[in-house]
Batch of 4 targets.
Target 1
Amino acid sequence: MDDITFKHNPKQFCPLCKKNVYFMPRYPNYICADCIGTGTFTKDGKEISFSNVDFTGGFMSMVDGVKGSEHECFIKGVKCRADESRFGGIVIQPTK
Ligand SMILES: [Zn+2]
């Protein structure tokens, strides 16, 4: 593969399942929807979900129906951090 081909066909992979995902240079390590779909949990094992506050964005977490601002979660046992995506929605990446 030469350099020009590489630049026009960038590849990116989910860090957990290694599946080919949509290329997002700003989020080089984001976790794919399939892995997120297996469940996101707090460190004490409660289900946690993340969303924007409203259509203008913002970030919030939800545990047991309680809103919060927790960014840490575990997916497939891997510690991750969720954040508001620049383009709307939520992006989750493993914590380094
Ligand atoms: Zn994945």
Note: The mean pLDDT is 92.
Target 2
Amino acid sequence: MTVSIAFELVRPDGAAALAKLKADTFVETFAADNDPAHVEAHLAREFTPARVERTLADERSTTWWLLDDGVPVGFLKVNRAGAQTEPDLDDGLEVEQIYVLASHHGQGLGSRLMEQAITTAQSEGFPSIWLGVWEKNLRAIAVYEHLGFVPFGEHRFLFGNEEQRDVLMRLRVDGSSPPGR
Ligand SMILES: CC(C)(COP(=O)(O)OP(=O)(O)OC[C@H]1O[C@@H](n2cnc3c(N)ncnc32)[C@H](O)[C@@H]1OP(=O)(O)O)[C@@H](O)C(=O)NCCC(=O)NCCS
């Protein structure tokens, strides 16, 4: 059997498939540690094809995905000024979402997606990329630290009625030192 991973920009006609991938990866990542009602509400609000189609049409954001023999298995969404979740951090490129299906973890796909974020930031003149990661998502935090990201702040938010905390992490991509600052 031939298995090939393709890397592509997501086009508007991919909205329904991307919405499903977003929902599936969200459940895999967060369902076990959160109130099921909060997860359900989040899925119903955030990952409808119509909503995903709107984000795909927003020129301030870009989404790529990885296809395993044509089936989407991972994606990356980056945001520029005006579309970012932290308006004051628009001197860097935001990696809002980077997700790989659990069936494909540990095969270099996350690194491949992050490399795209880095080259995009560099080609557009951003000195850094940044992201927010749930403080309980220890695997992702370990991966980001391994890739050179450094924590620099936090973002508190409500998930359902529960206050949660994202760690904000940054990676310098302009070659300046010290890394991550
Ligand atoms: C985080 C995630 C995107 C990483 O993707 P992945 O395909 O599993 O990662 P890769 O196999 O490309 O590994 C990325 C790098 O981290 C390293 N790494 C992998 N697991 C690690 C761990 N537990 N601790 C430290 N480093 C780790 C790898 O060695 C690799 O480094 P290298 O390129 O120098 O070899 C993926 O695990 C995922 O989708 N997790 C669930 C969703 C999620 O948490 N998304 C982030 C939300 S903020």
Note: The mean pLDDT is 95.
Target 3
Amino acid sequence: MSITELGRTAPSSGTEPAVLAEGLVKAFGDHRAVDGIDLEIRPGEIFGVLGPNGAGKTTMLRMLATLLAIDAGRAEIFGVDVAGRPHVIRQLIGVTGQYASVDEQLTARENLRLFARLQRIPAPSARRIAADLLGRFGLEEAADKPIAHFSGGMRRRLDLAASLITRPPLIFLDEPTTGLDPRTRGQMWDTIRGLITDGCTVLLTTQYLDEADQLADRIAVIDHGRKVAEGTPDELKTMVGASTLQLMLAEPGEVPAAVEAVRRGLGSEPVLSPEKGRLNVALDQADMAADVLIALRTAGISISSVSVAKPSLDEVFLALTGHETETEETR
Ligand SMILES: Nc1ncnc2c1ncn2[C@@H]1O[C@H](COP(=O)(O)OP(=O)(O)OP(=O)(O)O)[C@@H](O)[C@H]1O
Ligand SMILES: [Mg+2]
């Protein structure tokens, strides 16, 4: 039996949003980790929450997953009130990370069967579901090895598999690929896309613009517990240009002259970096870099280094908030 055959049932007609949040707040002491966030996630989409360390991503997910009390505002999942009916909510969502305490001595197959049995699924079904999930997640070969020998990527996949046992219509993935190598990240992306084909809705958090770009239909960018932008990946990228020209001037004092030259030459506004002498210019097309360089040379401004890069999360942030992404440590 495949997951598809079993089907996924949301309690509603399917016209309600998968997630609807209004003014969500979570405060730890006098620090508002989540400071009034609104979200509307449509059934069947992959919705990405993008933000740097400490932005409030995990805190927001934990509130939606009933693992943390909501201090202010409200949330509904498929029309069910999160604070009012937590037991129903828990049947509607799969949360990865929730099963972090898998038994190291048991094999992957035994772990999945155990979880299924703990969900009161009868043994024959539990066996079938475990086999099905192991196949889908590329864990067949390793299925009968104790998970103590599993790599980080295999553990992540097993964790996701475990969260799908009850076939929840909504899956929360908290930074599903942080720390994975590029190949394993790619596999995880395919797995996540597969969830959608299967009829799920996915809410995922990430620190990586490329990941949100690859996976998400829509993205909310959050910073200091607030939403600073929302849109499709393309909409967000056009806010910062399709690519970015990163310039380091030989003479940091020439920054104002360089800004003026770029304005005149390209009609766009460079973004100044806090680093002295560095500025970034958003480009709609990578080959516009030449126009900028010509404009600078005409103005007699010399450059010590230059590169063209895809916009990074840092640039999206700098463009949207006027400050760079900062981590807990640098704050
Ligand atoms: N249980 C807690 N008690 C006190 N402060 C907390 C608690 N959980 C989170 N915080 C604080 O709330 C803020 C948001 O944390 P959160 O874990 O939600 O960020 P995040 O966006 O998930 O970051 P990361 O990318 O590092 O996972 C941080 O300043 C964090 O220190
Ligand atoms: Mg987090």
Note: The chain has twelve helices and 14 strands.
Target 4
Amino acid sequence: MDQASLINLKTGEPVSWEKLEDKNVLNAVSFSPLWVLILSLLSGFCFAAQQICKDSLTGMEIELVDISELPLLNTDLEVDGICPPVVEAFRQKIAAADSILFASPEYNYSITPALKNAVDWGSRPPNVWGGKAATIVSAGGGFGGGRSHYHLRQVGVYVDIHFINKPEFFVPAFNPPPKFDGEGNLIDPMSKEILQQILVSLQEFTLRLSGNAQ
Ligand SMILES: Cc1cc2nc3c(=O)[nH]c(=O)nc-3n(C[C@H](O)[C@H](O)[C@H](O)COP(=O)(O)O)c2cc1C
């Protein structure tokens, strides 16, 4: 992928890689969206995003976070304000991340229970989401899971997540041409291009929020 082809979506100017290379590497996290990571189409987004960062997005690394092992939220599981170890490990990953890539399917016009549960655990005091930059990608039926975005944005208001507004990315996964191969890898060139633009936008917004804007 050609770095020179990337543009700043706000100004239309080419991204200045020299300036970005001066920054510390941003650490973004992305969720495994479904219970069985490897079978989820949405994992394909996470892997593709990791590859884009490796190939062409200097200064950004993405780590996948598995939310499938988080227990259903029950505040009785907290002891002296400490959550169960698997939850604390998850919370620490979020706290350490500069930004978040939510790869979420839509379940019955909303976000999945697994994702809501993860957001809720992260919101226990101290809220680890506060002030993070974030974006959402989804795949689904005709609207590509788009309705789930607006529910997630609503939840994000209270936990103080700052979502980028554009580009938005909804992939109608069941319409031709094929978007994913048999193993769940993202293969559609147009979708890859938009995903790249989203990551550039997320990187810029994260730098801006942290006071490192160009
Ligand atoms: C309980 C349930 C509800 C769903 N509801 C929606 C929905 O409202 N809109 C939609 O586009 N897809 C819906 N889907 C399909 C998901 O979009 C699909 O499972 C998702 O794209 C992930 O694909 P995968 O299960 O192959 O990983 C639903 C799936 C399940 C299991």
Note: The first helix runs from residue 17 to 22.
